[in-house]
Specification:
By secondary structure, this protein is mostly helical. The protein has ten helices and no strands. The longest helix is centred in the first third of the chain and has 25 residues.
């Protein structure tokens, strides 16, 4: 239960700070409107640093179902713990994004751009093309999870692996690199909980004029990252070093 609690806390902090930077850049009348894409990618990298640093020594700081399922596929994490981790991650994401909404409540009320509102919760593609959007999330998450296997020291042990707190900075830099290099087409969800949890809250929260939650796209940031994480595990096991 302590591990589940810290997956919840770590994911909530991740989304609070990650979606917080998007809200700061995108919503009307904030002080962060000039930060742009570079500001968003740096903010998400630092959000990952905080979430991983807080949760790492207790839960291993997966904070992402694609990581949890990837580790389990590679035999580095018990399948019996996977459901509890994923539930904790989704609840943490829903909580974190609700805190963003509370923080920026007056700015949500003032914002008329429905795309900007949704973008501070969940992803939509820059160009709508389901196959290519899926492939983008698959490739980005493959790179993310494969790198995490080695950051976490998985090549040094046959047992479970986790992201110790000393690995928080490398993982943050990894997310920053992915955001800057691969994030343009889809906004680099690379995390099913990061997208679907906040998307659910976008649908539920009383935001004036918020528009659609874009459910037509919701499956891509879920299945793309999971497939990418599983493929990363297969490649990692095939390399065998």
């Amino acid at each position: 239960m302590e591990a589940y609690l810290f997956e919840f806390i770590g994911t909530a902090l991740l989304i609070l700070l990650g979606n917080g930077i998007v809200a700061n850049v995108s919503l009307k009348d904030t002080y962060g409107g000039d930060a742009g894409w570079v500001g968003i990618t740096i903010g998400w990298g630092m959000a990952v640093f905080v979430g991983v640093f807080v949760a790492a020594d207790v839960s291993g700081a997966h904070l992402n179902p694609a990581v949890t399922i990837g580790f389990a596929t590679a035999g580095k994490f018990a399948w019996s713990l996977v459901p509890g981790y994923i539930i904790s991650q989704f609840l943490g994401a829903m909580t974190g994004t609700t805190l963003v909404w509370l923080t920026y409540k007056k700015h949500y009320d003032a914002t008329e751009d429905q795309g900007a509102i949704l973008g501070s919760f969940a992803n939509t593609p820059a160009i709508k093309s389901p196959f290519w959007n899926f492939l983008t999330e698959f490739i980005a998450t493959f790179a993310f999870v494969l790198a995490i296997f080695y950051i976490a020291g998985g090549n040094d042990t046959d047992g479970p692996i986790s992201l110790g707190s000393l690995n928080a900075l490398p993982v943050a830099l990894l997310v920053l690199a992915i955001g800057i290099s691969l994030g343009g087409p889809t906004g680099y969800a690379i995390n099913p909980a990061r997208d679907l949890g906040p998307r659910i809250m976008h649908a539920l929260l009383p935001i004036p004029g918020k528009g659609s939650s874009a459910w037509w796209y919701a499956w891509i940031p879920v299945l793309g990252p999971i497939a990418g994480g599983v493929f990363a595990a297969i490649v990692y096991m095939s390399i065998g070093i």
